[in-house]
Every structure is written in structure tokens, then in C-alpha cells.
Amino acid sequence: MAGGLVYTAVGSDAMATAEYYGQALCELAKEHPDIVALTADLGGSTKIGVFGKEFPDRFFNVGIAEQNMVGIAAGMAKAGLVPFISTMSVFATMRVADQLHADVCYQNANVKIIGTHAGTSFGQAGSTHHAIVDFGLLRTLPNMKLVCPADGMETVNAVRAAYETPGPFYIRINRGFDRLLYENTEYGFQLGKAHMLNDGTDLTIIACGSCVYQALQAAKALEVNDGLKIRVLNMHTLKPIDREAVEKAIVDTRRIITVEDHNIINGLGSAVADIIAESGKGCAFKRLGVQDQFAPIGLHEDIMSVLGIDANGIMAAVREVMHKDFEEDDAWDDEV
After folding, report:
1. Ramachandran region of residue 308, left (φ > 0), alpha (ψ -120 to 50) or beta?
2. What is the 3-state secondary structure of the chain?
3. Which of 318, 179, 186 lies closest to 258 in space, CA to CA?
4. Pairing of strands 237-239, 145-147
5. Please, are residues 131 and 115 in contact by the beta-carbon 8 Å criterion?
6. From the centroid of its chain, how far is CA 207?
7. Rounded to whole angstroms, what are the CA distances from 307 to 227, 262, 290, 294, 295?
8. Which of 252, 243, 253 is nearest to 276 (CA)?
9. Quick one: residue 269, left, alpha or beta (phi over 0 = left, psi -120 to 50 = alpha)?
10. Of 178 and 190, more confident
11. Most buried of the four, 11, 292, 297, 334, by CB within 10 Å?
């Protein structure tokens, strides 16, 4: 799905995740003249401003008017253009909820939303700038697709997938310099399909966004220190979610932990819990994330530690769940 984009891990740790999408969007726009971009006076902060420098006649700054921006984008989409709009995640979802509902999703308008500074990645800005309920809002909107990339390479794939997928599409990325998981874009990204980073039979960790790297580090440490074989799934697409991967994890490992930089209510954990409940099979299960409260103020890495969604917190949760037996045996004969 990389198209004309060629990225390697060399020097890429100096790029913020948002810079990947800015470059990817410019490359995509060279191929497709129907792409336009809109910002609400945050072209520099969200990195969509690079599109404006390269395609000034296809770039629109509407000012600090996010609701108008969404309405304008919906109109552009109905006229045959493919608008990409970008602002901070907290503004791209909650502030424009009515417009997303009525103008975009109800009309199934081909609008692509890139929300930056997601989760608690802009931690020092405080609760007004923490996007910890955007999954919950967008998961409930019909027609909306929702992707939360784990790093810059995956962001590149998500941008191209957004263009290639008709209808409303939301890409959720962080503010900071995320750790790289993938050396390039050619690792098999598929919309709606989880990507397995580590296989195992003792327990499955299902994570998204910045928590995927932490989950993988935890799995590696647990294998060395505890002898545990931990499956790690990068659930980059929350909607449509990969039901098959979750159902397979239930059968193969019977213990699942979800990790997200989001409220545990109506986020990744809730989506996975729905699948577990509907499967009719028992499973030891724990959700890590923001525990239905406002997150503290501070640097992202410190907040992740406080919330228990960094590698150390995930390791502690795995050890806790490994000691929970939901029945005396591991046989499936007595299951529904």
C-alpha cells in the first residue's frame, strides 16, 4: 500500500508521526488531483501545512472554526473532491460531533479526518487537550471507519487506505515522536485486520497506537524473565475491528489484555469485550487504559506510567491475569 512512498527506518526516529502523514498526503496528492486539505488554523501544529506549501490552490485554512470546517469538507465531498481535514483529535471529534453525525456520517460523505495530539500525547496541555473519548464517539457513528496507527510507517499506510476507502474515515495519531515498530511500509497492512507482532499461547495483548510498542517490549521481557509466550496484536483498526483475530486469541490463549491510550469505556477494550461476550466462550480478561477518569497532566511517558499502559504496567497486568483461573481445567468440552 506504499505506492510511491519510500521510507526506511534510517533517520526516521527524528520525525514526529504527524510528519509522516503530511508527507504521505503530499505524495498521494501528486497522484490524485481530487485531494484537497483543510485546517482550522493549525496547519503547523498538525503538519498538514506542508500540503499547503506544495498545493496552495488545494489548501484551505478556515480559521478557528472546526464545525464550519467539517461542513465545508462535507460539501466538497458531495461535489466529488476528497477532503482531508486535520486538527487536534479533541477538536476533530467532540467539538464537531453534530457535524460529523449529520453532515458526514448521515450522508456517508467521503471525508477523511486526521486527528493529531491524540490520547494523552499532549499531556502537558491538560485535560482540555486530552483526547480520551474519541474512540467512543466515533465507534457509535454509522459509516465511520476508525484507524489508530502504531507508528509513522503505519500512518503512511493509513493515509493511503483512507483515500482508497469510500466514506468517512478517521485516523488518530499522536503529537510526539513515537517509537518505530516497522522498518518500512511493506509489512502487510490491511484495513480491518490486526497485525501480529509476536506469537504466543499463554496470553494475548491487544493494543493500538502508542501502546503497541509498549506491549511488544513487555512481551519480550516477560519471555526472558518469566518464560511466558505472549501474543501481541496491533489492532490498528478499531472499526471495523478484526473479530476473527480476537476469537482466535480466545481459543488459543484464553487470556486477553487490551491496552489503549483512551478511556477503557467504549474504546478498544469495550470493542474486544463485545466480541468475547458474543463468542460464548470464557476468557480471563483485563482492560488497561484511562480508568474512567480524567488523566493527570504531565509528559506523555509519565502519564503512561501512571496509567499503567507502559511496558512495566503491562507486565504487571500480565502477571496478575496469569494467576487468575476462570475454571479448574482448560478443556472446552463444557463451554457453551
Report:
1. left
2. CCCCCCCCCCCHHHCCHHHHHHHHHHHHHHHCCCEEEEECCCHHHHCCHHHHHHCHHHEEECCCCHHHHHHHHHHHHHCCCEEEEEEEHHHHHCCCHHHHHHHHHCCCCCCEEEEECCECCCHHHCHHHCECCHHHHHHCCCCCEEECCCCHHHHHHHHHHHHHCCCCEEEECCCCCCCCCCCCCCCCCECCECEEEECCCCEEEEECCCHHHHHHHHHHHHHHHHCCCEEEEECCEEECCCHHHHHHHHHHHCEEEEEEEEECCCCHHHHHHHHHHHHCCCCEEEEEEECCCCCCCCCHHHHHHHHCCCHHHHHHHHHHHHCCCCCCCCCCCCCC
3. 318
4. antiparallel
5. yes
6. 9
7. 25, 10, 6, 11, 8
8. 243
9. alpha
10. 190
11. 297
Mean pLDDT lowest among 44-58, 121-135, 255-269: 44-58
Interhelix angle 243-253/268-279, nearest 10 degrees: 70
HSE-CB for 224 with a 13 A CA cutoff: 6
Give the type of residue at 123.
G
Amino acid at 54: E
- Contact of 58 with 10, CB cutoff 8 Å: no
**pLDDT higher than threshold 60 for residue 328:** no
